[in-house]
Amino acid sequence: MVSVINSIDTSHEDMIHDAQLDYYGTKLATCSSDRSIKIFDVKGGQQTLVTELRGHDGPVWQLAWAHPMFGNLIASCSYDRKVIIWKETNGSWGKLYEYQNHDSSVNSVNFAPHEFGLLLACGSSDGSISIISSTGDGTWDAKKIPNAHSIGCNAVSWAPPINPGDLLDPSGRHQPIKQLVSGGCDNLVKIWKEEDGQWKEDQKLEGHSDWVRDVAWAPSIGLPKSIIASCSQDLRVIIWTNDGNGWTQKVLNKFNDVIWHISWSITGNILATSGGDNKVSLWKETLNGDWVCISDVNKGQGQISDGQRSLS
Amino acid sequence: MSNLKVHWSPIHDDVFCTCSPNKILLYKVVHSTEKPTQKVPSMRQMSDTLWAVEQPKSIEMGMLKTVAWYPKPEPDNMLAIGLANGRVILNNFSGNSESDLIKKEFVPKHTRSCIYLNWNPVDSHLLAEGLEKYRNDSCINIWNIHHKPGNELGDRQRYSSSHSESSGAIHTPYVEIGGPSETTASFCWFKKEPRTFVTGMNTRYLRIYDLRDCTRPQNQTQTKMIRGASVDRQNEHRIATFNENHVSVWDVRNFDKPMLTFQEPKAVSMIRWCPTRKGYLGILSQDSLTVKIYDILHLPQTVGSEELDQYYSERTIKVLNSQIVSSFSWHPKQDSRLLTVTQQGLLRDLIVQEHIPFNWSVDSTLVTAHGKSMSITSFNKDNSIPQDIAVKMKERILQGYGLKSDIIWENVYAIKEEPELYGVWRWLSYAREMLEYNKQGQTFQRGMMGKHLGVKSILGLDVDDMATSHMTNMYWSSDFYRKLACVKQYHSAERSKALQLCGWGGDHHKPELLDTILHELQMDGKYAIAAAMALFNLQISKAIEILSTSKGQENTDLSTVAMAIAGYTEEKNTLWRKTCMSLLQKLEDPYLRAMFAFLTCDRENYEEILTEQGGMQLSDKVAFACIYLDNDKLKEYINRLTRKVIEAGNLDGLLITGLTPDGVSLISRFVDMTGDIQTAALLCVFSLPNEMSKDERVLNWIESYRELLDRWRLWHHRSKFDIIWRAGDNFRVISQAFVSCNFCGKSIACNMPVASRARPHNSYSAGTLTSTKPKISCCPGCRKPLPRCSLCLTHLGTPSGSALYTQKDKTTYSAKMTAIDDWFTWCQSCRHGGHASHLLEWFAEHSECPVTGCNCKCSTLDHTARLAAES
C-alpha cells in the first residue's frame, strides 16, 4: 500500500521543478519557476521553512546537496545560465559561489561522490557540461566539456566512487576513477571519464530515439557491475549494465507517455520513474533479470471529484 | 455528430455542455468509483471515476453556429447562441424566462452567418459577434445585452421593419467595427483592459482595438496568422493565433513579428490557452487523435544585456484510442483540467499532468512535487509490495540485528520473519563455539586455529589434503535390530568436527551429546528432525520413541510413521517396502521422507537423500554425508554442493565454504540477488578473523553498510558495528587527542606509562608510597597546577583514566570510569573552558563565553550541539 504521509505547502508561486532531501533526509530543498529556492527542516513528519534563497533571474531547474562533510551546501542551476552554490554559515544561508560560464539554460546539476572532494557537474542547453571543483582555499576551478550533446544536455549523474571492476581485482587498492553519465537532445547517453585531469568521452550509448530526459547512475552497493538508467521522450526507460564486458541495454518498459524523471533508491534496488501519465512507478529487477513494476503512485488521474483534486 | 463542441460552464465547476449544429445538451459531472449497475442512457463516462449525467432540459434549434457561455452566475447557465442567419439568441436550459434576458434576440442589419461570439469577461453585458462579410456593413457587432428594444432610435427602425415579426429583437449594436467589405476571423477580449480586444481581420491583419475609439485599431500587425486569436489569461501580453498548419505566439508589446511559431503536421482547427496554468497552449489539429500542448516556459527574454532563448516543451495528450478529437475545453478554474469530445461523441476528462519531480529520502520514502505543492509518500508493509531491502535493513538494525556479539545466535531474534537467514547464523554460532573451544588449549592442526571454519576447510578439502577416515561397520543400537545387517559409517577427527559444525554433536563416542541435541530439538517441537537424526545415528528405537511421543498438530502423522518404521525389514520386495514407497510420496516433511529413503535405499546409495530439492536442511545433508560417504564420494559431494550454493547465493552454504574466496563469491551472489548488504557485512565482520578481511568486496560491503548506518543517523549502531569489526580484526585506533601542559608541553594524561613520563622530582619522592599517586589538579610532568575552571575557579584535573594503573583490579567496569562531569572541556574558538558539568549548566542559559571580557559566542559555534538540538 502506498500512503501519503503528509503534504507540504511550499508557498511557491509557480511550478516546482525539483525537490531534494539532503544526505540525512533532514533538510528538504525545493526550487521553482518563481525563481526561488526554499529550504525546509524535516523533523518528525513536520516541515518548517528555514529560508528562501533568491538570486536567480529565471526558473530554477534543479538542486543538489553536497555531502555533509563539506557543511550544508546546495547547488542550484537555472534558466538564467547560472549555477549558484549556497552555503549555510552559523544558521544563515548565503551565496558561496556563482558560475556563469554557460551560454544557455543550465538544466542539471549534481555533486560528485564526496571521495572526490567538493566537485560538481552541470549540463546546459548550450550542449556543454561543466565540472566545477573547489580548490579548498575558497577559489573554484572549472573544466568544460564543450559540445557534449548537440542541441543540449538535459541531465548529468555521477558514478559511484568504487569502480566495480576493482571489486573483482584482488590486487588491492585502486585509485577511484571519476566518471559521470549525461543525457541530451541528441538522443544519446554518454559516459565521461577523467584521465590525467582531462575529461574524455568514454562511451556513447545509443538506444533512444528521442531526447533523453534524465539519466541516473545506480548506487550499485556491493555489486561488481555498473548500472545506469535513462529515460526519454521516446516513452522508454533503458537500463544499461556493464559487468566488465561492455555495456548492454535492456528496455525496462515502454510507457504511454513521456518519462521525465528517474531515481534509484538509496541501495539501488528500486528504480522510481515519473512521467506524463502522472504516475510515480517503482520498478524492481527480478532474479531472472526482468524488471517488474511493483507499485504505481497515482497523483490525480481520475480523482477529480467534487471540484477538488486530492493529492494521493 | 462530427462537429461536436464542448464548453465548460464558467460558473459551475461540474457543469458543461456539448453542442452539435442543432442541439445543445447540458451535463452535470458526478463522481462514482463503480460502474452503474445497469446502463443508464443519460450517463456517460468521462474518466475512471467521473460520469457525465445528461440533464433533462436541452436546447434544440436549427442553424446553430456558435455558442458562448455567459460569464456571470445570473441568469443561470445562460448561453448566447449565434445562428447561421447572424441572429444571436440568449437562452438557458430551463426555458422559463425568470430574467428578461432569456430569449432576447439580437439581429444584424443584414442576414449572414455568425462566425463567433465572445463575452466581455469584465463588462459582461458586452457580447461581441463576428459576422461574415457583407458589402456595406461592418463585420463585428458588439451588442449590449441590456439594451431594450424601445431604446432604439427612429432611423434604425426603418431597417428593422423588414424584421417586424421579431418584435422584441434588438437591431442596434452597441458598437460596430470594421468598414464595408472587411472580414473578421477571430476575436478575444483582454481582461486586464476590458475595453480592448484583439481580432484577426481581412485575412492579413491582427488588430487590437479599444472600444473608446473604434475608428482605427490601436495596434496592428500584418500576418496571415489571424485565426483563433486567444489571449493568455495568465499573461495578457501573450496572444496565440493560427493559420492552416502554423501556430504563432505574439507579445503585444513587440507586435511586429511573432515570438514563436510552431508548425503542425496538419491544419489546426482550434487553439486555447489554459486559463489556470501559465504557458500551456492547447492545440487541436484536424483529424487528430490527440491534443497537443505546448508548455511555453519562456518566450525569448532579455536579462540584463543578454538575450535568453525561448524554452518550451511539447506534450501530446492521447485522448481515446482511434477516435478523432472534435473539440476540447480547459476547465476555467481547476488546474490543467481538459475536457475533450470525439467526433463519435465520447467524452474524456483528464488532467494534463505536470512533470513530477521526486526524490528518495534515506528512509525510502518518496518526496514528490506536483505543481506548487509537495507530498511525502511512504510504502507501508503490505503483501502487494515486497518491502524494500533498505527499509528491512533499517528495521532489523533497530531490532538489534548484528549487534549481539556475545551470543551470536541472539541476532536471529531480530529477523524472526526471515528463517532463510537462520542457517548462516547457526553456522556462525557453532563456528564461534568451536573457535572458543580450540582456544582453550586444544590445538588444531594445519593452522586452522583462530578461524571460523567451513566444513570444507575442516575436512581439508580446500587444500586437497583429506585425512584418512576409518570405515566402521556399525550395528543398529537396539537389541531387537541387532540381527539386521550392519551399516557402513566413516569416522575421523575431522569428520567429527564437521558434524559438530553441522550441529550434530559430532563425537560418536559420546552418545550423551547426541541425546542432549535430540532433547533440545524435541523441546523446540522439531520431532521429525530429531527422529531423523536419531535414525541416522542408527538409534531406531529412539527415533520411534521420539515420533510416538510427539505432541503437536501432525502427531497422528508422526505416529503413523513411527509405526511404519517399527515394522522395518531388510528383505526386499516385501509388502512393507512397497507400502513405504507409496507412503514416501505422500509425506510432506522432508525429514520423514529422508528417514524412509534411508531405510529403503540400497546400501551406500544415498543420492536421493543428499540431492533432493527442498529436502533436508543443508547442514543436515552435509552431516549425513560426513557419516555415510567415503572420502572420494564425500569430496565429490562437497565440491558439487559448493558450486551449487555459490551459484544460488545460498547463504547456508557458508557452512561449507566458510569465509574463503568461495564464501565471498557466494555472499557476492547473495548480495546481487537480495541487495542485503547488511547481512553480507555482518557475516564478514562476525566471522573475523578470516582470510578475506582485506578483500575489496568485503571492505566494500562493510563500508557501504557503515555509510548506510551513517545516513540513517544510527551513529551509535555504527559504532557498535565498528567495535565488533575492529575487535575481530585486532585493529587499534591510535589515540586521537592529547591535552598537554602549558608549562612543560607534556601530555597530562594520567594513564601514560610511568616510564615515558619525565619525573623531575622522582629521585626523592620515589620512596614514599603517597607520592606515586599523581595529584590530579597539576601536571604529572612538571607539577605545575592546571588552569582553573572559568566558573568554579578551582584547578582543573580529573582522575579519569588514572584508576587504570593505580587500581590493579580492572575487572569492575565502573572502577575505570570517573564522571565526565569533572572532565575539562573548552571552546575550540576562544580556548576558554572549565569543568564539563559547569559549562553545560552555563550554556544552558547563555550563549556567550563565561570568561569576563570574552565575547565569543561559544555555544552557537558548536555544530554538534546544534545538530542535537535540531533532531
TrEMBL record, chain A:
In Gene Ontology terms, what is one molecular function of this protein?
Answer: structural molecule activity
Instruction: Indicate where this protein resides in the cell.
Output: Lysosome; Nucleus, Nuclear pore complex
Which BP terms from GO are recorded? COPII-coated vesicle budding; mRNA transport; positive regulation of TOR signaling; protein exit from endoplasmic reticulum; protein import into nucleus
Q: Does the keyword Nucleus apply?
A: yes
A GO CC annotation recorded here is: lysosome
Question: Which UniProt keywords are listed?
Answer: Lysosome, mRNA transport, Nuclear pore complex, Nucleus, Protein transport, Repeat, Translocation, Transport, WD repeat
Q: Does the keyword Transport apply?
A: yes
WD repeat positions: 9-50, 53-87, 99-131, 205-240, 252-284
- Predominant subcellular localization, coarse grouping: other
Family label: Belongs to the WD repeat SEC13 family.
Protein name, as recorded: Protein SEC13 homolog
From TrEMBL, chain B:
Gene Ontology biological process terms, A to Z: cellular response to amino acid starvation; positive regulation of TORC1 signaling
Name the Pfam families for this protein: MIOS_a-sol, MIOS_WD40, zinc_ribbon_16
Give the start-end ranges of region Disordered.
Answer: 154-175
Q: Which residues form the signal peptide?
A: none
Which UniProt key words apply to this protein? Repeat, WD repeat
Chain ranges of the GATOR2 complex protein MIO zinc-ribbon like domain = 741-859
Domain MIOS-like alpha-solenoid per the UniProt entry, residue ranges = 393-628
One Gene Ontology cellular component annotation?
cytoplasm
Q: Which PANTHER family match?
A: GATOR COMPLEX PROTEIN MIOS (PTHR16453:SF9), WD40 DOMAIN-CONTAINING PROTEIN MIO FAMILY MEMBER (PTHR16453)
Q: Which family does it belong to?
A: Belongs to the WD repeat mio family.
What is the protein's name according to its record? WD repeat-containing protein mio
The organism encoding this protein is Magallana gigas (Pacific oyster)
Source organism lineage?
Answer: Eukaryota, Metazoa, Spiralia, Lophotrochozoa, Mollusca
